[in-house]
Fold this sequence. Notes:
Residues 92-121 are annotated as: Disordered. There is one protein chain. By secondary structure, this protein is mainly α. It folds into 2 domains: 15-158, no CATH class; 162-325, no CATH class. Helix content is 43%, strand content 9%. The protein has helices at residues 15-25, 57-64, 75-88, 91-99, 132-151, 156-161, 168-188, 197-213, 217-235, 273-280, 309-313, 321-325; strands at 32-37, 45-50, 254-258, 267-271, 289-291, 297-299. The strands form 3 sheets. Strands 1-2 form a two-stranded antiparallel ribbon. It has a two-stranded antiparallel ribbon with strand order 3-4. The protein is globular, with a radius of gyration of 23 Å. The chain starts with 14 loop residues before the first helix and ends with a helix. It binds zinc ion. Zinc ion is lined by residues 243, 245-246, 249, 271-272, 274-275, 285.
Amino acid sequence: MLTPFTKGDAFDGDSDVLAGIVRDRLPDQRELVLITADSDFPDSLRGYEWPADTHQAGRAVAATGFLDEMRDAGLADLTAKAVDLVAEGKGEQRYEEATRDLGRSAPPTKTGSGAGSESGSGSGWWPLVGVPVLALTALAARAVLVRSRKRSPAVPQLVFATARAADEAGLRRRAEAEVLALGEATREADVAMTPGLQQALDAYAAAGKVLDEARGLPDLAGALALAQESRAALTGSPGLPLCFFNPLHGRAARRSGWRPLGRRDRLDVAVCGACANALRDRRAPEVLTDTDENGRTVPYFEIPATRSAWAATGYGSLMPPSAGLGRAR
Length: 329
Ligand SMILES: [Zn+2]
């Protein structure tokens, strides 16, 4: 995904947000390696993968920018090299090798004048000529960033990988980016060619309002569900809503019958691949929880439908999310 980033764009200028959205749009893709432009360091790349750390993709892609041979490479060559290194599966080792000399020697300049004897690590993203000190600082800062990213358990890309790890701030940013992108899409829509435009605009407005007033994960997930409803209306392809059991799992893959605890009738709900497998194996799916009136943490759909728009709509499985907003909340 070699899209340029700017502050305030649809991804808030953040490759982590882009990666999260792309991941979300590919619910059936169990394994995914994603290479994006790096939002912190222009002309360099960043790697993501799901499940985490299976190919050492993050480090492999990070190493690409530090290789001597990639010093003058363009984005296409840099990407090809990154793909090679990910395929090789030794990202950790390659990264250590590529950054070993950082801080010991100055990076060479592209002009070559007076730099011939230096043997530092070059980099494909290296845009500066004749400002080696500044550039070295940037290189070192980047190495530190990449390292600290590795060490911290709260790596942004993992936030989106599992609903359990979804923290509120990350989800809020993602929902904001989604609503922002949707606003652009509705503005660009051709009135004559988009029969669902009014419905799309209504759901878009509702998504913005829910986002503004969101008090926790269930509401933020609701904003995502409304955004999904709006996008479906805009493109004229309804498709399936988000996963009923946990909308943070992304778009559902199929519909499935499910009998809630203590009820005789079965509900027809849309579920993601993982939740469908859980139902098939008679395991409990991983559900999104909410807080009931007694302060207990319960599956969100066990909150009375009169009190929760999300319980009433199942985030789109039982009725369109926008239809539930007038009735509850
Ligand atoms: Zn699911």
